[in-house]
Amino acid sequence: MTKTIPAYQRIKNAILDNIHSGKWQAGNAISTEMALAEEFGVSRMTVNRALKELSEERVLERRQGSGTFVAQQQFNHTFVEVRNIAQDLKSANRDYEAQVVSKRAITADMLDNELRRKFGINEGSVPVNTNAQTDASDEAVLYEVKIIHFADGQPIQFEERWVDAKKVPKFIDQDFSVVNTSDYLIAKSPLESGSYTIRALAAPDEIAEFLQIAPQSPTLVLRRQTYSAGQVVTFVKMWHAGDRYQFSGEL
After folding, report:
1. Which of 108, 153, 157, 158 has a Cα at 20 to 30 A from 23?
2. Does an H or E element contain 156, and which?
């Protein structure tokens, strides 16, 4: 049974889509409450709830007597410092290389439960086009890329990444043997917050093959999701060969 999306959430989603598409940019005024109420056929109270929540999420800024604007701070710079392995290795004067294993568009019917949960995609909420002639990329809800990162010719990290296809539509077109995924995402959809975990896991056969280690060897797995405009824009799993990589920093 298809779950109906509440009216206030539909309004939030539409506003976020306009921001991500560039229709409404940082500092721009958005449609008035009255105009949004007419467009969606709802009461101004429903619109007010959507705008209030987006303001609390620091996506919008409401100015008394002036209207509602796209918040400057969310889209002018990145609040989250996202280190990437290319920078780390180059800083350590090590030769760096990236090899793209695969990249593909993922449609709604291909999503597993973890990806649905991470990106807030409810089963049945995304219409599936039954026209066999339609390109899968036109129906994509996520893009997936898998990359092996090398240090001095030795595989040191295997990256599995998923990106919201609507928020970053040109992601899949990039050559990630040249362009770093994190750098591209920051440039196209500045990140405002994120969360991560690091676990020690035995390497499954496929991961072991990519990292050129024995199956069940120890690995360090970083799982990270980052947000832009209040929504998850990317989720990534980074597998590191346990005897070749360490996490470090300063307190």
Report:
1. 108
2. strand 154-164
* Among the listed residues 152, 149, 143, 174, the one whose alpha carbon sits nearest the alpha carbon of residue 99: 149
CA angle, corner 147, sides to 141 and 149, nearest 5?
150
- Write down all domains in the chain, each with its CATH number in brackets: 7-76 (1.10.10.10), 85-241 (3.40.1410.10)
Q: Is residue 137 pLDDT above 80, yes or no?
A: no
**In the block, residue with structure tokens 């206030």:** 8
> What are the tokens at 40?
């969606």
Number of residues in the chain: 251
Nearest to 86 by CA among 183, 7, 219: 183
Helix (H) or strand (E) holding 161: strand 154-164
**Residue 22 DSSP label:** T
Q: What is the pLDDT, as a whole number, of residue 205? A: 96
Distance CA 148, CA 160 (A): 9
Q: Is 12 exposed, middle or buried (0-12, 13-18, 19+ CB in 10 A)?
A: buried
DSSP H or E run through 147: strand 142-151
Nearest to 246 by CA among 219, 226, 214: 219
The residue with greater pLDDT, 42 or 128, is 42
Full-prediction pTM beyond 0.90? Answer: no
Radius of gyration of the chain (CA): 20
Collapsed DSSP state (helix, strand, coil) of residue 206: helix
What does the alpha-carbon distance between residue 238 and residue 222 come to, in Å, rounded to a whole number? 5
Q: If we measure between CA atoms, which residue out of 87, 106, 105 comes closest to residue 180?
A: 87
Distance (Å, whole) CA 37 – CA 33: 6
